[in-house]
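Friendly challenge for the regulars: who can give me the structure tokens for this chain first? No prize, just bragging rights.
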Amino acid sequence: MPTPPTASSALQRPPHPDYLRVLKTFVRNSLVREMQFRGNFLIEVLTHAFWFSMQLVFFKLVFGGVNNVSGWTQAEYFGFMATGMILNALMEAFFVPNLANLSELVRTGGLDFALLKPIDTQFLISFEKLDLGAFCHLVLPAALLSYSLIERNHVPTVGDVGLYVLLLTLAVLFFYSLMLVFASTSVWLGRNQGLYEFWFYITIFARYPRDIYQGSLAADVVAIGFSYVIPILLVVTVPAEVIVGKPFQPFWLLTLAVAAVVALFVSRFVFHLALRSYRSASS
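First reply, four minutes later:
Bragging rights claimed.
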């Protein structure tokens, strides 16, 4: 009987594969898939536009009765909303379709073929299928962010824009690492839909500024836990503060940077630990 592929199989590969060339191939294949289903792409764009409009109307109504929410004016909060939507669009474009499919690869044995390919398995699992349609979801948030800056009468400096991009990158890396850890558990659990739902539940906290979590013991516990232990409250709040010109603490920048780096190492460790436990569908 043939020996099933394992994590050690994934390490016996030609050195230095051309990852940029492979990524270009992934992008080209994803573009072909999008062109084959233009109707689905149109429906996705219209659905996102409707959801975006409803969010805008809702918070317009909220700020119609108050001047600010926990220190965030309407213009500043729209900048926060736009930042969160940009982050979600980047996650949807690059990682959500791929990592959500890992449990199916484990169930069907498709992970066998991924382990045997001459490229890093984590890279292949993370980037093989890109959702290029999600990049269109960046248009409306970018327009909302521009509106926010105009209403606030704030022009970010080049340094602000560079720091904003850096912080968004750290946020994407942190969310990617968190999702990879949850996806890796499918090797042990088979189906881990409950854990995926848990990932979406805890990321709900990032939809609101960190400043609103105050005034009660429960709010303080959430603020401390999701700022220092799992800094979900920082991934949107800190970049938004930078781009809209609100005062922010450089300590949070350091915290987010450390969290992203640590999360990357932990997620890669967990992923390879899961691969070592994987047994081929043919075994």
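The chain has one domain: 7-277. The chain has 15 helices and two strands. Your move, everyone else.
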